[in-house]
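Please predict the structure of the following assembly.
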Amino acid sequence: MTDVVVIGAGVVGCASAIALARRGASVRIVERAGVETSGEGTGDGASWAAAGILGAQVEAAEDNPLVRLCLEGRARYAVWAPEIAASTGLDVGYRRAGALHVALDAEEREEIVGHTAWQVTSGLTLEPVDGRQARAIEPEISPAVLGGVRFPDDARIDPPSWMRALRLSAGQAGVQFHSGSPVRKILVSEGRASGVLLEDGASLRGGKLVLAAGCWTSQIEGTGLPVGAVRPARGQIVELSTGRRLLDHVIYGPGCYLSPREDGRVLIGATTEFVGYEPGVTAGAVRDLISAAVRLVPVLASASVTRLWSGFRPYTQDTLPVLGEGAVRGLILATGHFRNGVLLGPISGEIVAALAAGERPPVDVAPFAPDRLRVEGGAQRAEGGAQRAKEGA
Ligand SMILES: Cc1cc2nc3c(=O)[nH]c(=O)nc-3n(C[C@H](O)[C@H](O)[C@H](O)COP(=O)(O)OP(=O)(O)OC[C@H]3O[C@@H](n4cnc5c(N)ncnc54)[C@H](O)[C@@H]3O)c2cc1C
């Protein structure tokens, strides 16, 4: 019997486990894939596929609860990333290098600047730039760029390095990993979540459960969520390398974003496609992403293509994450982080840990309550859902 069983060892599950363990809880993560806690290994969840942009401002066209959560998420990185890098001895690629959103025509530039009006009134830091200033900041940017806005407080991280460090850090904090074990169903007794039933028929008991299974959340029975509440949204990424450091900022422009690495790699992302759980990289997407990237940074035309991949973002209909207890008591949902799950990992972990302890979370989670999905998604329940679960399945 563990205090808390966390389902899923992605960024949200690992950050939740660390935050729980720091509060003294005994924690076990159940993960269907193999997990190495030695700091090695890879995974197939979204957290390994992400571009690692911690872009709380660059994507924020208006003020809303998600943007506020993203700002809190970015602030948490300034604490979590150095701490975890120091305790594990790993470089997680955390850089507070800023983001630059650029335009190729006057209309686009006006639109970018217009979207930031609320940020100015909210006291967030940003700098409108013209084309010359953009090239002074990032000399490889095309002469066709007319300007845009710089967000100096946005940051980036290297997701595979971050994931290795999080898993290592979780292990250091005493978190146990039960890997290679897909969860089939949430078990309930006396009206509360009491454990998980694994695909091999075994079960694990926990005082509380945390569901952090990303886009696979809806495949697990008994969560109390409506059918298809969390769906996969495929994203494709092209990685190029010039062998020398090319950019410092994350660059957003028409048709793509560019997330640079110190070793000269540049990640170009990303598509958003609803193709079920079909992994793959398509010729059309690679063509479009590379064309858009070369328009912004012409020298990329001579870069080597070093890797292509796709991953599945956990999408909800209103694009908001799902945070909190839903229809099943004792089951804390931490899923549906869609485009911002890396950015929101540590803050989600802190929210989960506070909720598990019966405390007020550090951020108001009412806008992210699981119940809203019941209302908007209709009353249909998952096979084996809360009602049956409450009956003692
Ligand atoms: C191409 C792409 C680019 C992205 N770029 C960014 C970015 O720049 N910045 C950003 O903030 N976000 C980005 N995202 C989004 C981000 O990656 C996700 O929101 C985030 O990783 C979700 O984390 P998670 O832990 O919820 O899910 P995941 O990382 O998918 O982890 C879920 C885990 O649960 C496990 N699991 C699933 N089902 C079961 C089961 N039945 N039993 C046991 N274990 C199970 C899986 O194996 C997996 O390890 C991007 C995503 C994609 C695809």
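Residues 375-393 have pLDDT under 50 and may be disordered. The longest strand covers residues 304-315.
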